[in-house]
Amino acid sequence: MFRQMLYTQLKWSLIALAALVVAGFAIPVLSVQRAGIVQPATWDAAVLLTAIRGWGVAYPILAGAVGLVAALTAWSHDHRGNHVYALSLPVARWKYAVLRFAAGGVLILPVVVALWVGGLAAGSASTIPNGLHAYPTALALRFGLATFVAYAAFFAIASGTSRTAAWVLGVIGALAVVQIVLSAAGVHAAFLPDALERLYTWPGPFELFTGQWMLINV
Amino acid sequence: MSDRRRIGIAILTIVLAPAAASAQQSVAAQQARLAALEAAANRADSIAHRADSVLQARRVLDTLRSGTLRVVTDSALAQRVRPAAAHAWRVLSAHLGADTVLLREPYGAIANRGSRLLPVAVEATALIDTAAPPLETFWTILGVVESNLVTRSGRTFRSWDGSLGFATDTTHLFSLAYVSLITAPSRAARLCRAGDVAACAAALGLGPDSNRAASWYSVNDLRVVLGRGTSSPFARDRRMLAACRAGSDSACWNLAARRGPSLPAPLGVVSRTSLIAIALARGGAGAYTRLLADSSAPVAAQLSSAAGMPFDDLIAAWRIRVRGAAPPGTTGAPLRAELAAAGWIVLLLALALRSARWRLD
């Protein structure tokens, strides 16, 4: 049954995942494109690190995108069919959700592997100044974990009904509106930035997304 | 002769005639013309001076005070300069502490277009870009004060190329100094990393003057360092560099010797500014005054005096601080973030298993 689910989810998300695999390979390669052309002697290491740091923004964005695509494609057909297929199967709902989750998780792996291979290729193809090193494996592991966090978050939202998703998004939107109104009224109650900060700092779920994502570093 | 040819010859005559006449001009005529031009330039200069004098006489100046910082500026500029000077004072007083007495003389601020002179004595003058954002005015004033203090610390100190770092975030500064120390292609920097204090001083350009190249670089380092920047205009240097790159050690050393004082020290302005920051921080109250006290002393002695500690101890303290300033959050995430992420994945999956109205069991 797992193989069948994996096959169907692959079929539904093939084009999007293929694009994300290409992006996963391309980002590390593009991040060092200048390092491969310019003679290392002319490189100021700090300038190279700044360029690499600039590309670091792309990794968490890609992780979020992969998680979103994998989670939405896992549930979209069930939502469209009003879960009749799932209800017709002789399996418990929790078991069905676990199988869906596992199938989506397997589909994430090619993107992580592509990013790792891209990092290895970029690290070996570019001339890195003395004292700096490439960290493709550490970067790929972090990317993989961040992708799974995003996937789990979107999967949890998408596994509910459309109404649940609407409620989640509605509450977030309402909080944003209240914050804007309060700010416009001159009331200093920055609860939304505080809430976001809690999400992105320990022990929040998205701390992995913050900080610097650098393929090359000291 | 056809009409077309006739027209062509006429055009050529019109175009070439003045050039032919000019070529025939005598040297005496050209000298006369030069003299006439000089006279015209002198007249214009005289008129400009008179106009400037009239403007100076009409000039209305304001003296803006923020703490002990005084800035003399044109009234028209005062509105722009006042908040910038107040902001600069806050930064300066935080850095200088009791040493704000060093700002005893007023500074000038004038618009970058218009008269370059203030009719009063000032320590240094800031050129204010009136079209730039207000924050730019603050940076300009702060930069002029900083540059003036460096100048007052003496020619040796100034040419050593350090900065007082008023405009620099200390954490970022030491992080950059760490990157410099780790990546400098230099024998002295490597020895410094390993704990050799004398090598640290040499890498910072504060070692003995004799045989600097050998104390800074190995021959392989020189191959990297000498190849940096623009190529030399001298063919001999270019040949030596090519030979150096091709493997000739003697060519490398000879080229380094030819570079002389222009051969860069391994650790540049960022590292030096971080050393000054350590010296001033360790020195506490009066550190800036002591730094400026003897402008003829060697840089090492000035820094040691500012820090109130032996120079070797200062370098050792700098090395420890820089070694501990590795840039944060590199590639791998902290373990606690990874554990938290794993926990959240399990929690979110558990939520996904429980939700929805189409539960079967």
What does this structure look like?
The complex is a heterodimer of chains A (218) and B (361). Chain A has 218 residues and is mainly alpha-helical. Chain A is 75% helix and 2% strand. Chain A contains nine helices and two strands. Chain A has helices at residues 2-31, 33-37, 45-55, 58-80, 84-88, 93-125, 136-159, 162-184, 191-200; strands at residues 133-134, 216-217. Chain B has a four-stranded mixed β-sheet, covered by helices on one side. The longest helix of chain B has 32 residues, at 27-58. Chain B is extended. At the A-B interface, helix 3, helix 6 and helix 7 of A face helix 6 and helix 17 of B.
| Class by alpha and beta content of chain A | mainly alpha
Strand order of the largest sheet of chain B: 1-2-3-4
Percentage of residues in DSSP E strands of chain A:
under 5%
Rg on CA atoms of chain A, Å: 21 Å
Spatial gap, N to C terminus of chain A: 47 Å
Please give the number of β-strands of chain A. 2
Largest pleated sheet of chain A:
2 strands, antiparallel
Rg of chain B computed from alpha carbons, rounded to a whole number of angstroms: 32 Å
Number of distinct beta strands of chain B: 4
The coarse overall form of chain A would be flat
Largest interface: A-B, 52 and 44 residues
**Number of helical runs of chain B?**
17
Oligomeric nature of the chains: heterodimer
| Mean pLDDT level of chain A | 85
Strand order of the largest sheet of chain A: 1-2
**Dominant shape of chain B:** extended
What structural class is derived from the secondary structure elements of chain B? mainly alpha
The amount of helix of chain B comes to 55-70%
Domain tally of chain A? 1
